[in-house]
Amino acid sequence: MREWQEIHWILLLVLGWIGLGVTGLFAARWFTFVTRVLFPLGAANGLLLALLALTGMMTGPQEAILPFGLPDLPFHVRLDALSAFFLLILGAATAGVSIYASGYFRREQGASPGLHCLLYHVFLAGMAFVMLANDAYAFMVAWETMALASYFLVISEHRHAEIRRAGYLFLLIAHVGSVGILLSFGVMAGSTGDYTFDAMRAFDGGTFWATAAFLLALFGFGAKAGLLPLHAGLPGADVAAPSPVAALMSGVMVKTAIYGTLRISFDLLGTRLWWWGVLVIALGLITALFGVIFAAVQSDMKRLLAYSSIENIGLIYAGIGLTLVFHAFAMSNFAALALTATLYHCINHAFFKTLLFLCTGSVLHATGERNLGKLGGLIRHMPWVSWLALIGILGAAGLPPLNGFVSEWLLLQGFLFTPGLPHGYLNMLLPIAAATIALTAALAGYTMVKFFGVTFLGQPREERLSQARDVSRLKRIGLLWLASGCVLLGLLPNIVISLLEPVTSLLVSQGRQLNAGMENWWLLAPISEDRASYSPAIFFGGILLLIGAAYLCIKHAFPAATTRGPAWDCGFPMQDGRMQDTAEGFSQPIRRIFSPFFRRTCELPSPFDRQPHYRNIVEDPFWYWLYLPIARLVDLVSRFVAFLQHGRIAVYLMYSFITLLTLLVLTR
Amino acid sequence: MTETAILPIPLSGQLINLCAALMLLLGFAMLAQRRILTLINLFMLQGGALFASTVIAAHSTGQHHLYWSAAITLLLKVIGLPWILHRLIRRLSVKWDVETLLNIPTTMLIGIVLVVISFNVAQPISQLSGTIMRATIGIALACTLLSFLMMITRSKAVPQVIAFLAMENSLFFAATSATYGMPMVVELGIALDVLVGMVILGVFFFQIREQFDSLDIRQMEKIKEE
């Protein structure tokens, strides 16, 4: 037996997750054990996984063959820098979410905690195994395990028809996607019939088949990630799932799709064409814009965050596309920059989106409400959640000095280098993409201001909000872990980028480094210092200095203790919490400006109505243009099949009789 | 049949051909029969013809296992199953005339077409087979198809079951004529299957009647999924 490498320990940890899940199933009735022992153990497992993955990124590729699977078809696993990086994301985010989840589940609510424990940990193990798999068979098994576990987690409150419907749609789209992935693997295996990734790396089927495999993979993984127009399943599923599960799905599960796309396009396929990159950039940017515009007009906290995830996925795909373009023109330095931005955004999104989903879950638990129109002023009752949510908000809005800014800035830098491309149309058109990214970032900031302002600031819009209590200690630890991740990722970009270096050199640049090392850790200048640079430490110091100075000035000018008094009512004496700016009101300009994006039904009450009722529904036009026609077509075809099913025995007998006769006559 | 008319045929062969012709005739008779009681008697007669032909084949070829087959046929198809069926219809009190889905003359015409087809289909098989009963393969196939047709055209459950049993008869006949019968184990297995199937179907009759107050299978169209 060889000595134990990281990959063996990681496999052991994955097995450990499954073991925890099974233990949870056997101790299903023992609530305290499941929530206070098993979930924290799962978190520790995640932390260990993250540490091992970190060391695994530094060493070379490690391979192993597992003794189970079908006869003659064992599972191959492999740990290289790319999979280790995504395992790092998984482990680090899971550590926070699991700790939070141990405080989240409540007695006698929904499904039993033991069942949750099983599905949750199988889900985690499935995701980890997707990233470890080194043959198509193991990959698909892990992929489906992950999809099914997440489906059952989504419908854990299956008594509501709406939740069942959302889960069904999610599962359906995920399965259509996995058909695409399977076909893509089939194309790459070619006629050799060998489904290991090593054989696929060696196989070269020419440009046509490479394109077919890439497009199929893009379709399949896009369905999982929520790339337009395959996004319809995700928002509903995120809304339906319990908050920790929604956090994992939105923050980590979609990253498995990113992993798959990167794995297939940069590792398994031998050839890459530049127009693939253009296609991916276009799809990614449209997705990002669509996602952020829809996020801006939502009034449901979870749905808003889900659309914001779609936006971030769009940005990540735009980064992948840019990497493809640069790589195809052999500009490996810029390709490394774009890939760094992409990967950086993956880990950032994993942290801030899980943090925000968990904060939403805390608000939901404390108030029973996730409609922005009925919240408000929570910062006084839930200070922990509010301040930690603020950190997540700043990250998601892409504001310095937090993490979202760094990756979006890097991505923008990448797009600003496109005029160097040796292709006429491209270097004219791609700056438009940079403009779209800037627009998306601005709208994301708008959305996040709305999310935070309406929920946590101002006056409570309902009486019972004053009863809201802050989160328990366990949940607080989980939130703190994720928030500190956001802060550190924002403040130490050079360290993160040097950590990403093995991945970029594995995929695109073959050893050439970005100009970011440990020696000048405070200044981030990806290409050269006189082009563009960013120093989060100076930014952070400046912000601290300004806040301190302002505080001192105010203290100096108004030395008396703070008193609370009524605000000036503009001469209008009747004022209550419901007269503040609402979520709908705040997003009204967006609804106006981007009205062609929506399908909107609005009911305005008549001025003489004694009981006025205002209704405003914003729907996804894709649902009507794309999904419903397809559904109708499928319905029509299946109706034709049902025409054969008369329910009469004589007719069924007739079918076999005619078949028999035909066969007899044909064999004659 | 055409070549058998030219070649000189031994007596046993002629007897077997007679039995085969009887089976086909009985098949048509069952197809045309409206009354359940007569139907059962015809089924019994068909079993008898099968028994006779098997015994003759066993005697003339010296294949001793065919005697066992014949014994099983006699016990099961001439005595056992008709007795069970008689008891069943007495218990269910269904001695009424059978309604057919197609009228009788049309059914008969279709039956004739089927016989022509099966003779055509069976011709190459008969030339390949070297048994004494090879000329009867066409008849066996025709009997199978006729029973199938009967199953389709009947609307009551009991005649359908009889048609099913008759189909099993003719399949057995086909097997003996093509290859001197199947291995003993298979034959025993099939015999047991038929018996068990009969018992289960008998239980089903009572269940169906309880649910729908009738043994008319057209009632069952109601339970299909909309």
Summarize the structure in short.
With 668 residues, chain A is mainly α. Chain A is built from 23 helices and four strands. Chain A has a domain at 623-667.
Write structural notes for this entry.
The complex is a heterodimer of chains A (668) and B (226). By secondary structure, chain A is mainly alpha-helical. Chain A is built from 23 helices and 4 strands. In chain A, the strands form 2 sheets. In chain A, strands 1-2 form a two-stranded antiparallel ribbon. Chain A has a two-stranded antiparallel sheet with strand order 3-4. Chain A has a domain at 623-667. In chain B, helix 2 packs antiparallel against helix 3 and helix 5 runs antiparallel to helix 6 (137-153). Chain B has one domain (11-211). The model of chain B is unreliable at 1-6 (pLDDT under 50).
Q: How many discrete structural domains of chain B?
A: 1
Series of H and E elements of chain A: HHEEHHHHHHHHHHHHHHHHHHHEEHH
Which percent band covers the strand fraction of chain A?
A: under 5%
Q: Got a strand count of chain B?
A: 0
**Rg of Cα set of chain A:** 26 Å
Distance between the termini of chain B: 50 Å
Question: What is the N-to-C order of secondary-structure elements of chain B (H for helix, E for strand)?
Answer: HHHHHHHH
